Amino acid sequence: MSARQSSLRPDLAAIAAHVSPGSRVLDIGCGDGALMAELESASGCDARGMELDGELVERCVARGLSVVQGDANLDLANYPDKAFDYAILSQTLQTATRPDLMLDELLRVGRRAFVSFPNFAHWRTRAALMFGGRMPVTRALPVSWYETQNIHHVTVEDFRDLARMKGAKVERAWFFSNEKQIGAPAANWRAEFAVFELSR
């Protein structure tokens, strides 16, 4: 992993390190475009983005990135099959209206998909609910329940089940805690967030 990639959020750095140079990439929910900028500058990728927040779209465009304002729940349907080598959905699956249908769309528009998400089965999350009796506010889930955009509470095992149900093959997976990569054993309670690379 390069020094530039290390400035990315850990899940984005893992994705950037495994996208093949020169690929066509669609970053769905691209935020401020940090991953797109990295993929273009370091790997020569043709990166496109979709973002719901108009202010973030303006920031991306000001950086010279190709980003459209759109709602992934609706607008992914406008892209043709296998239009991209990779479809990327980072920290957005849990905000989708229907994560199961979103996964179908990712694997339709991309030959492969990267999905990262906060793991709601992490031990801190479990402890906050069990012993505190309140919805957790943690490093991975920093926003209170009344202002969060997270409408689905997905776990590592939930996602594995969904991928299996959708006939998706898990090519690789990475798990993180305290901003560092950890091993796969017991990731469902040890990982604060996860990244999966999928194909169909």
Write the layout of secondary structure elements.
Elements: H1 3-6, H2 10-18, E1 24-28, H3 34-43, E2 46-51, H4 54-62, E3 66-69, H5 72-75, E4 84-90, H6 99-109, E5 110-118, H7 123-132, H8 156-165, E6 169-177, E7 180-182, H9 187-190, E8 193-199
Parallel strand pairs: 1-2, 1-4, 2-3, 4-5
Antiparallel strand pairs: 5-8, 6-7, 6-8
Helix pairs in contact: 2-3
Descriptive report:
This protein is α/β, with parallel strands linked by helices and 200 residues long. Helix content is 36%, strand content 25%. The chain has 9 helices and 8 strands. The protein has helices at residues 3-6, 10-18, 34-43, 54-62, 72-75, 99-109, 123-132, 156-165, 187-190; strands at 24-28, 46-51, 66-69, 84-90, 110-118, 169-177, 180-182, 193-199. It has an 8-stranded mixed beta sheet with strand order 3-2-1-4-5-8-6-7, with helices on both faces. Strand 6 (169-177) and strand 7 form a beta hairpin. Helix 2 (10-18) runs parallel beside helix 3. The longest helix has 11 residues, at 99-109. The chain is globular and about 45 Å long. The two termini are 27 Å apart. Residues 1-5 have low confidence and may be disordered.
Question: What's a concise summary of this model?
Answer:
This protein has 200 residues and is an alpha/beta fold. Helix content is 36%, strand content 25%. Helix 4 links the parallel strand 2 (46-51) and strand 3.
